[in-house]
Write a structure and sequence with these properties.
- Chain B: Belongs to the ABC transporter superfamily.
- The complex is a heterodimer of chains A (387) and B (312).
- With 387 residues, chain A is mostly helical.
- Chain A contains 15 helices and 3 strands.
- Chain A has 2 domains: 154 residues, no CATH class; 214 residues, MetI-like (MetI-like fold, Orthogonal Bundle).
- The C terminus of chain A is likely disordered.
- Chain B has 312 residues and is an alpha/beta fold.
- Chain B has 2 domains: 236 residues, 3-Layer(aba) Sandwich (Rossmann fold), CATH 3.40.50.300; 60 residues, CBS-domain (Roll), CATH 3.10.580.10.
- Chain B has 14 helices and 13 strands.
- In chain B, a hairpin with a 2-residue loop joins strand 4 and strand 5.
- The two termini of chain B are 31 Å apart.
- The chains are: A mainly alpha (387), B alpha/beta (312).
- The interface between A and B is medium-sized, with 24 and 32 residues.
């Protein structure tokens, strides 16, 4: 029998091999800011589990490397990811000297590369399985539940990032809700303003080029510069408009962050609304008019439902973009997960940076998967006619 | 009855429709023929006010078509277009129900009408009603398009190249279906096409348009026999004239006394088909049978050839 290799599997196996045998699995530091010492898989884990993890990784890499059935590949990636997630916690407890509260154990490059390699395998399998939108959301929920269980069980409590969390549990959730409020709130505002503006741009040709150009220019302003630009006008508003300051409008803080995120969100929403409406089949529009629909009935009954998947794509772009951009809001006192990132950078405490960055990435990732699923569900029945 | 009086449409300096007047009798089919850019579609769209005329007046059963809001006018007039314009996000049944829903019919009445039309168009309401347009063939989509236009029982049906996107075999079938349905409901139909063959086949009267002007408006036989201008002559196609003329007549009108050998041709077939059959089989006469299958007589090559000659 000829041995056949899987193209992506070669890459996955190479990454896994390097990560398992050459790169450090965990980092040990005597306290949170000193440079760390690398520990390999065999050094970081108890004598029984170390070889077990190596065996799982090697087996998983081999399954990825060769052309194997999808079910087997799915099992290999899930088992490897589960083992990695559990055992990094074991490594944390194993490496921490008894009674020492200053020592910090964090996952090192080898661990992250292994996670990356097997996530790649899992993503590849899921793509090839061609899952329905509901099934994809289901996979996301299962993964979230698994991570949640690991967090609640205390399995990871010996890891540095959770030690940082333990010190800041209250502010973590406060900043988290601020982050989500900023990202979602500016999105809602952008949709409320952007949809009518997009419809207007679609109907009034003269407005279209002008409005889209202005929004394009805003989009090219770097975020920090935009925050800076907003300080003066918002400061003026706070000082001169009665009641504005009481509403929390100030030159720095949440207000300029919200306004900046809102401005960044407008272009994708407006542009996608215009493109979506322009893509409505001419014949369908003509028929709608010819059969006696009023402009309003045509907009809500024909144009809008047909443009909806494209508009949703714009909303997806905005949401993912905003979740990431909201991190920067911390720079001007806007709050959010960025607070931990910038504190961590200031203290050269990488674990604190991760405490801000990891939830941000997870949020953006989950938002992308959910909205993609919604877009696909709305688009399946609305295929553009071929005639 | 539709009266079009001195209708003109100008866009800036360009005159698209130039002082057109014509009367379309109730329960007939009027076909507007012309090359592209002749203004035929614009003329059609002025009847249901998708285009507002620059000058002139259009009366439907004596009422100025501007006497009610445009959307109400359009709900009372059927409208079918090339590429059918079905709503891709609505099911076949929902598509057909569009105008009845706009008019606020009750659910039972809408369902009954949709089922009636789908059955009429040989689409099983149970099987096809819940499907989406992209799941149908081109011919089925076209039928749904016409069914949708007829849903609110309009007296007048406007059709803009409704068969343009169909292949020849399905097109012939669609034309026959439309003729049958027009007879059944007595709808007044105004149909725009660039295909003279279709015009001769479908029209009780044909209006030929060129550069915005109505060049000739007459019965098909007269258009063929006495084209009003060189343009009409070209449109008719000089070499096609005798055959088009024959296609207007039924075999039963050309029956002579006597008998002939071979398979009989039905009396309601067109004289053109009879001539084709005679020429192809190399015979000089064919027996003709009536609807009941009884022999009516025969048609001969000589008889048909005389009928294909320019009328006096």
């Amino acid at each position: 029998m000829r041995i056949r290799f899987d193209k992506l599997g070669v890459v996955i196996a190479a990454i896994a091999a390097y990560a398992a045998f050459l790169a450090p699995f965990a980092t040990f530091r005597a306290n949170r800011i000193v440079p760390g010492e690398a520990r390999s898989i065999l050094e970081a884990l108890p004598a029984t589990t170390g070889p077990l993890l190596l065996a799982i990784v090697v087996a998983g890499a081999l399954i990825a490397l060769l052309k194997t059935p999808l079910v087997l590949r799915l099992a290999a990636s899930v088992v490897a990811l589960a083992a990695l997630a559990t055992l990094i916690g074991v490594a944390g407890s194993f490496l921490t000297p008894a009674g020492n509260t200053f020592a910090r154990i964090s996952p090192a490059s080898g661990f992250w590369l292994l996670i990356f390699a097997f996530t790649l395998l899992l993503a590849d399998v899921l793509t090839r399985l061609n899952l329905s939108p509901w099934a994809r959301v289901g996979v996301l929920v299962v993964a979230a539940l698994a991570i949640g269980l690991l967090l609640i069980s205390g399995q990871w409590n010996s890891l540095s990032i959770l030690k940082e969390y333990a010190n800041r549990a209250d502010s973590f959730w406060a900043e988290g809700s601020k982050h989500v409020t900023l990202a979602l709130g500016s999105l809602v505002a952008a949709v409320v303003v952007g949809l009518p503006l997009g419809i207007l741009c679609h109907r009034v040709e003269k407005l279209r080029a002008g409005a889209l150009n202005v929004l394009n220019i805003i989009q090219t302003i770097p975020s920090i510069a935009l925050f800076g630009l907003l300080i003066a006008p918002l400061g003026w508003v706070a000082a001169h408009v009665p009641g504005a300051a009481a509403l929390g409008i100030r030159g720095i803080g949440t207000a300029p962050a919200f306004v900046a995120l809102f401005l960044y969100s407008l272009l994708p929403v407006v542009a996608n609304t215009v493109v979506g409406l322009a893509g409505v089949p001419r014949a369908a529009n003509d028929a709608a008019r010819g059969m006696g629909m009023t402009d309003r009935q045509r907009l809500f009954g024909v144009e809008f439902p047909l443009a909806f998947p494209v508009i949703l794509t714009g909303i997806r772009i905005v949401l993912v973009q905003n979740i990431g951009l909201a991190t920067i809001a911390a720079l001007i006192g806007g709050g959010g997960f960025g607070v931990f990132v910038f504190q961590g950078v200031g203290q050269t405490a990488m674990d604190l940076v991760l405490l801000g960055a990891v939830p941000t990435v997870a949020l953006a990732f989950a938002a992308a998967i959910i909205l993609d699923a919604v877009i696909e569900m709305t688009a399946t029945k609305r295929r553009v006619e071929t005639a | 009855m539709i009266e079009i009086e001195g209708i003109t449409k100008r866009y800036d300096a360009t005159t698209v429709v130039d002082d057109v007047s014509m009367v379309i009798e109730p329960r007939t089919i009027a076909v507007i023929v012309g090359t592209s850019g002749s203004g035929k579609t614009t003329l059609l769209r002025m009847i249901n006010r998708l285009v507002e005329p620059t000058a002139g007046i259009i009366r439907l059963d004596g009422n100025d078509n501007r006497s009610q809001p445009d959307y109400e006018l359009r709900r009372s007039i059927g409208y079918a277009i090339q590429g059918h314009g079905l709503f891709p996000h609505r099911t076949v049944a929902q598509n057909i129900a569009t105008v009845p829903v706009l008019l606020g019919w009750d659910k039972a009445r809408i369902k009954a009408r949709v089922d009636e039309l789908m059955t009429l168009y040989q689409l099983d309401p149970e099987a096809y009603g819940p499907r989406y347009p992209h799941e149908l063939s081109g011919g089925q989509q076209q039928r749904v398009g016409v069914a949708r236009a007829l849903a609110a029982e309009p007296n007048v049906l406007l059709m803009d190249e409704p068969f343009g996107a169909l292949d020849p075999i399905i097109r012939t079938k669609a034309q026959e279906d439309l003729l049958a349905i027009q007879k059944r409901f007595g709808t007044t139909i105004i149909l725009v096409t660039h295909d003279m063959e279709e015009a001769v086949r479908m029209g009780d009267k044909i209006a030929v348009m060129d550069a915005g002007k109505l060049v000739q408006y007459a019965k098909p036989a007269e258009i063929l026999a006495k084209p009003a201008s060189d343009f009409v002559e070209t449109l008719v196609g000089a070499s096609e004239k005798p055959f088009r003329l024959l296609s207007l007549g039924r075999v039963s009108d050309a029956v002579e006394k006597g008998t002939a050998e071979g398979e009989a041709i039905p009396g309601d077939a067109s004289q053109r088909d009879a001539l084709a059959e005679l020429l192809w089989s190399g015979r000089s006469a064919l027996p003709v049978k009536g609807e009941d299958g009884k022999p009516l007589g025969r048609v001969t090559v000589d008889g048909l050839v005389k009928r294909a000659a320019r009328p006096a």
